Amino acid sequence: MPEREEPPLIVAYPNGPLLVRGNVEILTPEGAPLPRRRKTVALCRCGKSTIKPYCDGTHKLIGFVTEPEEPETPSGS
Amino acid sequence: MPAIVLDDAAVQQRPMQFPVSRGPASAAVLKVLRDPDDTSGLQDAIAAAVDASADLLVDEDLQLALFCLNELHYGGFAEAREDLEWAPELNAARIRIEGPFEAALRAAVPPTERPEPTMTGVADALFALTAADSGPSLSRYLARRATLEQAREFLIQRSIYTLKEADPHSWGIPRLSGRAKAALVEIQSDEYGGGRAGRIHSAIYAGTMRSLGLDDAYGTYIDAVPAVTLTALNMSSLFGLNRRLRGALVGHLAAFEMTSAIPSRQYGNGFRRLGFDETTTYYFDEHVEADAVHEQIAARDLAGGLIEAEPQLLDDLLFGAGACLVIDGLPGLHMLERWEAGESSLRTPAPADDEAPRA
């Protein structure tokens, strides 16, 4: 019976990781699969996780923000 | 971290043995559990103990009594009749303790400024609240200084909740709907191993206990743990068993998940420093990765989703989050205080380390 599968989803959480849901393979550059121990995984976005490519919460310790800071005076576009 | 396969048979939990009473209220509860036909004196004993209690949050007798009454709704007792779960007298006794217990909790939790009842407002408030949680750090102590004996005590103290990890919050599932329900189930499914019994978090924790020569049967160490350890679990049970407190239950879970990933790494480091390998640290390593996922889902989809659907629960959500920080922090403060004084954090000495298969 064909599987009716939802498309994979990546949700970008503000000031935090990217959460990946669904059937996505995460590979090394050589093509070897990285361990995937849970259905939903969080990918590091701050660059400081000790378990990259997964998130370990370190972004909170370093004050990582995802939104660019507002310029003090809006420059003309 | 290797994929450690645990024997499913080894993680089957059984009803616990009766604890030793700690005063008239817990003695009265245990007497009824042993002899359900004679409930005379139960309500009077509870009422008198509540009246006489100087501080319910650290009351050995009443917290043990409440623990026993709650346990009827979890795994139960080997020697108690199963239908006592809904015995009117025992439920009346539970409610008689829960009322003043909830009042004491509300008095102990500092108020938090109310955010906008939106997903972003709630999540930002929870991240700010949990980030501001400071004070002496049990995880740092474990990472840097704890002795082997203190590490064993830490596992014993944690076992009362962790051998039933996630269970209190599962009571929230039928009480939520929509986005909050999906988020709660997503978190709980991961807590319960995603369909693999050996990966249920409580089963992984049981493996950690065994690796230090500790007994992983639920309740083995109940007589050794102080009131504050029972208080923390009793609070989660209170939030879980009462539908009206679902906001507090969700706030509690969110704050719990949001303060777990980073300390879990420290705990793992502590056991590595003491010479243990990943058989022991698997539980903590797992929580570094899992709770970094859960905290995002918990703050936004679960807590934010709940408040967008039921904004009237905002105050209780903040109360539950604050209560997690204050009350779940008490066992840690107790351990640090005792250890700094060169004493054991347990009420009775830890059993001898006679068979610990050191890594």
UniProtKB/TrEMBL annotation, chain A:
Transmembrane residue ranges: none
Sections of the chain in a coiled coil: none
Pfam families from the UniProt entry: zf-CDGSH
UniProt-listed SMART domains: ZnF_CDGSH
Domain (Iron-binding zinc finger CDGSH type) ranges: 27-65
Keywords attached to this entry: 2Fe-2S, Iron, Iron-sulfur, Metal-binding
Name under which the protein is recorded: Iron-binding zinc finger CDGSH type domain-containing protein
Record organism: Amnibacterium soli
Lineage, broadest ranks: Bacteria, Bacillati, Actinomycetota, Actinomycetes, Micrococcales
